Amino acid sequence: MTVVAESLVLPERRSTAGRLSDFFWRHPRVLLTVLLGPPLLWLGIVYLGSLFALLLQSFFSIDEFSGLINYEFTLATYRQLLSEANLDIILRTVAMAALVTLVSAFIAFPIAYYAARYARGKWKALFYLAVMLPLWSSYLVKVYAWKLILAKEGILTWVFEKLNLIWLLDAWLALPIVGGNSLSVSYTGTFIVFVYVWMPFMILPVQAALERVPANLIEASSDLGGTPAQTFRHVLFPLALPGIVAGSIFTFSLTLGDYIIPQIIGSSRLFIGQAVYAQQGTAGNIPLAAAFTVVPIVIMGAYLWMAKRMGAFDAL
Amino acid sequence: MRSEKTNRAPLGLKIAAAAGLAFMHLPILLIFLYAFTTEEKTYQFPPPGLTTQWFAVAWNRPDVWAALTLSVKVAAIATAAALVLGTLCAAAVSQTRFFGRETVSLLVILPIALPGIITGIALRSAFSMADIPFSFWTIVLGHATFCIVVVYNNAVARFRRISGSLIEASLDLGADGFQTFRYVILPNIGTALLAGGMLAFALSFDEVIVTTFTAGQQSTLPIWMLEELIRPRQRPVTNVVAMIVVIVTFLPILGAYYLTRDGDQIAGAGK
Description:
The structure holds 2 protein chains of 2 kinds. Chain A is mainly α. In chain A, 74% of the residues lie in helices and 1% in strands. Chain A has 2 domains: 9-50, no CATH class; 83-315, MetI-like (MetI-like fold, Orthogonal Bundle). Chain A has helices spanning 2-8, 16-26, 28-57, 76-81, 84-117, 121-136, 139-150, 155-162, 166-174, 187-198, 200-211, 215-223, 228-257, 261-264, 272-280, 286-309, and strands at residues 61-62, 69-70. A two-stranded antiparallel sheet of chain A has the order 1-2. In chain A, helix 5 crosses helix 10, helix 7 packs antiparallel against helix 10 and helix 12 packs across helix 13. The termini of chain A are far apart. The mean pLDDT of chain A is 82. Chain B has one domain (62-260): MetI-like fold (Orthogonal Bundle). In chain B, 73% of the residues lie in helices and 0% in strands. Chain B has helices spanning 11-34, 53-59, 62-95, 101-113, 116-129, 136-161, 164-172, 177-206, 209-214, 221-230, 235-260. The radius of gyration of chain B is 23 Å and the shape is globular. Classes of the chains: A mainly alpha, B mainly alpha. Chains A and B meet through helix 2, helix 3, helix 5, helix 6 and helix 7 of A and helix 1, helix 3, helix 4, helix 5 and helix 6 of B. Chain B: It is found in: Cell membrane. Chain B: It comes from Sinorhizobium glycinis. Chain B: The chain crosses the membrane at residues 12-36, 64-92, 104-122, 134-152, 240-259. Chain B: Belongs to the binding-protein-dependent transport system permease family. CysTW subfamily.
């Protein structure tokens, strides 16, 4: 009896690798530490470390005469952040991000719905690639393409001319706020490019949410006499909402922090990202730049907390 | 009985979806047209004529080549680092249960969930506080940080599909942990890692926001393009470079798609 029992246990391994592997098997905690150590050290030190160092600096202030950082705890920088000019920047950015998110959802929904419910087999794969390729293609190239399109001598003006609608474009550009000398130096231009660049991030989460809506739920709604509009309002939209919220995390956050698009296509009025860039670069006011970065972090924190409560993360 | 009618898309939906897709693709196609234009000074449409001479001009530009080489080097090293760190993290999160597992996932995602400018400026001020001069390696450091999540996402999705009994069987048959990794786990996760690596490469190759903060005098290809965007000097060369960038980033995306398309989760679902 004992002989059988002993033969069931393998002899101890002789090689170093074998011993090490046995050791890990007996001490799973050690294995876990070895696996998690390097990535956590990297992210913890490189990423979180610099993030905290940055946030810490927002509690310092800058000496107005010498331009050096005064390393004493103060809330003066935050008082400066809440000045009228800076609040204006924050409000402008948040309003733009909210508008971009709404319009992105509006454009993304039909694409996501078609892909989730009607596209099958080869078409489904094609749809997927048709969404993925623009999503992943180069950010700068996309912005560049719009610089070509929105330029005064570019394709958009040409199209309006061919359609004899150039008066419409001129009338739009003559409007206050949204207008400007040409589309490429107006808020309208900034807005279009923001939507173009971030909208693809909305499609996949919405599609994921819609894939989970059983087709017979929609049939049941129309069997019970619901018009397509009612079905959308009471069945489809509530079920797609977590997906829209999940997608809006990307569109909202990415618009909040962007500083390149408004710099290249837009008016001279600043967005949060540009303010951060200007404060840390030419102005050399790192504390104020740090305080500015706190704004998107706080907004996104609140947003993520709300999204989590709505169950948006299940749709990711 | 299911009626045939409900399986056909309403016309309005078809038009809206087609218009949305056209909105996404036409601007990129326009880049291809402009690479051949004879116009040098403006963005005139329609192009007055078509030529292929700008390809030769771009080919002979040392600054474009230098930027391209730097971008490829940075992307290659950042991808390698992200592959190791992302796989380790994915293995730990999917194969074991421990306190704070959710936090680890959050920590990995954070570098791309927060706006890039925050990551960029945080790294920059940390480098200057620690007196680290900006160099090739500071760019790599930044890129690897946000590339980890791409590899991690792909690897976690694949790890979830490996049945635990496969690993137990290997161990029961006398393989040690390293042999199990080499002969059982690696062949199973190989394509997912390749896909994740390709996507990480594409992400790093294209990154500009963090790079503007972590690069000193070096210019990667996106930084070269950014300078051209702010102060256009050689529009025809920029047109050609833009077209090449589109092609170079499309290949890894297509590759990653074909490597992972049988899976339940397809690579790159979240950038």
